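Quick one: structure for this chain?
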Amino acid sequence: MKAVIPAAGFGVRFLPLTKDQPKEMLPVVHKPTIQYVVEEAVAAGITDILVITGRGKRSLEDHFDRSLDLEMLLERQGRTKELDMIRKISNMADIHYIRQKNPNGLGDAIHLARRHVGNEPFAVMLGDNIHRSEVPVVKQLIDVHEQVGGSVISVEAVPQEKLKDYGNIKAKKISDRLYQVLDLIEKPGPEEAMSNLGITGTYVLTPKIFDCLERTPPGRGGEIQLTDALRLLNTTDPIYGYVFEGTRYDVGDKPGWLRATIDLALQDPELGPQLRPYVAELMKKY
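Got it. Here's what it folds into:
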């Protein structure tokens, strides 16, 4: 299975940080956000990845390319640990890139993957989600897809006040974590929410989604919304929601990015022991 990672957004919520760097390249402890996403795909057995980029995202491509000058420097200095680390980054997967020339929304970005994906199911992994789980979240969805045959989307319970920031589903419970989707809506207002289940940005989709995207008119924000296309797909092909096992860090805004950085740094075996006493002192101070 191939994976598609949409990473063409402007990162407006991070300005001025993202004025001249992609939000997907913002560091979370030791590495940029998008590296966590690619590593999750590789851990799930996916080695063919298409990244949907846009203008100003060249550093993202460079990160996964070889840096021969840096490799030569590290080799001369005998820094084998660092050398192995950066070589691993450039060798972990076959990563391809295509530009979304106009910012027409997530649905439009996914549609650009049609030729690369072909007539096979594929994974979609948003570039601002970091997961921590025993089994990669995208692998959990692949396993569910192999059982049910249809498209599967990751969902989780979301506080009522935050549903406006998520796609939302109406669903019928099938088992402990599995739901059949009855309806979907993108970023509902308080009176529109159909449940507390928010769509969290990892998908395994059948190729029929591409025809639905072509028939989907601009929706919320004047953009082609993937949620609207999924609603259309659901009229002919069942879609399932899966409450994944694990922890998700939403690094799509500054508070989420900072929470992920603090939490993952405190868990880090090298940095955690140095930071925990300092954080404890900060808690007393503030």
